[in-house]
Each structure stands twice: as C-alpha cells, then as structure tokens.
C-alpha cells in the first residue's frame, strides 16, 4: 500500500529523504524489519512513499551512515546487531536545535544579521554583511542557564547546503524553535567532508543577569567550535557556554 510522506505540520518542513529515512529507521529499530532481512527494492520504496528513487537513495545512505542497514551486490539488508554499534538507538552526532526537553526549558531562534567583525573573513563575508545566525539555550526550571550557544554560518554553507539555504530565505518565520539537529547529516548529504575543531576553556565570571550564571554556582566551560569542509572553508562557527556539572561532550572527528 502506498504511504506518502508529504504531510502537514512541523515534520513536513523536513526534506523528503529525511522523512523516508525516519519511517524506515522506526521499522528497523522496532524490528518490523528483522536483522538480516533484505529491504524492498528502490523502485518498491519509491512507490511506497510516493517519491523518486533519488530520494530513496538519500534515505538509504543516511541509514547506512547510522549502521542500521548494509548494502552489497545482492541488495540492502537490515544490519545485524553487532554491525549497528553499541545500540540501534545510540545518539547520533547532532547540531543543537529543536526541543530536546520540555518546550519551557529549550529556546532556539534564527536571525539574519552581521557577525562580529573578527568573524566576517572566516565566514567568507564582507565586514557588515549579514548571514544566518542560530541561538540555542537550555534552561533549568528556575530559569538558570544550563547551556547557551550561538552559531554563525558562512557563505559556502548557505550555498552548498540546500536545507540551510531554505532557512536563509525564511529566517523571519523560524524565530521560534527551528530544528537544525540534522545539520551535520545535511552537510554529508551535500557531499561535504567535515572537520570539527573544538577549543575548550574556562570563562571568567560573567556576572550580569542570574540567567547567565551557572546553576548553584557551578563552574562553566566555554567551547569554540569551527566546522570546516574538505577545502578548508569554514561552514559554521559556534560558541557554547555550558554549566560544567551538567555538560557532557563527545568528540568526533572526520576528514
């Protein structure tokens, strides 16, 4: 039976291949497709989801990256458990964006503005030239800041990543809770091989508003992240401020 993935609501804003991947991922994790079972052909999946075969290929590539499926000359198969890594539900590398907890505790917004002068050249921008900026905050129930981040995107990022380019055109509509968690998968799907470089430091006491201080006076860490493509062009520059008692960082590097 055909199962179109075009639907109203927030999920409809996602690219088709991500929505196809989400349905298949659920089938795999819930074992509706058993480990070792061959998946239907691209043609069959395209008919099932009312999409073209290129969209199906993008979805399958994403699932291969997550080690949920494997492909050989015989076709594509649901991965055996030991090929999936520690757990089929293990968190994937993601960009901060979209609610991870209750909506009251997470705040995200997009804007279109000029970066600090010191960052302009790094982002391939002229001084004063605006670009897409993403701000994300995680707050304790008391309103105390657990984590805040601000990300600036470069001209190459907006040019090379179609999903990010769409946010550029409608930034004003996405000031509340834009979901960029799949940003690094978008980069991969665009053919970009990324390198993540992060510098961690201990900031001085920020003072100011209580929401800018750590919960219960906890120490804070600052993280400066630069994500570059295979040509050395910066795609994203992010500054993160996190309460050290609640922060957890996993380093993953790729060439």
Describe the 3D structure.
This protein has 255 residues and is α+β, with helices and mostly antiparallel strands. Helix content is 24%, strand content 24%. The protein has 7 helices and 8 strands; from the N terminus they run αααβββαββαααβββ. It has a 6-stranded antiparallel β-sheet with strand order 3-4-5-8-7-6. A two-stranded antiparallel ribbon has the order 1-2. Helix 1 packs across helix 3 and helix 2 crosses helix 3. The model is unreliable at 7-12, 82-92, 208-215 and 251-255 (pLDDT under 50).
List key phrases describing it.
alpha+beta, 255 residues, disordered C terminus, globular, two-stranded antiparallel sheet, 7 helices
Secondary structure layout plus pairing:
Elements lengths: L15 H14 L12 H8 L3 H13 L3 E4 L2 E4 L27 E8 L3 H4 L10 E9 L5 E9 L1 H6 L1 H8 L13 H7 L5 E7 L18 E9 L5 E10 L12
Antiparallel strand pairs: 1-2, 3-4, 4-5, 5-8, 6-7, 7-8
Helix pairs in contact: 1-3, 2-3
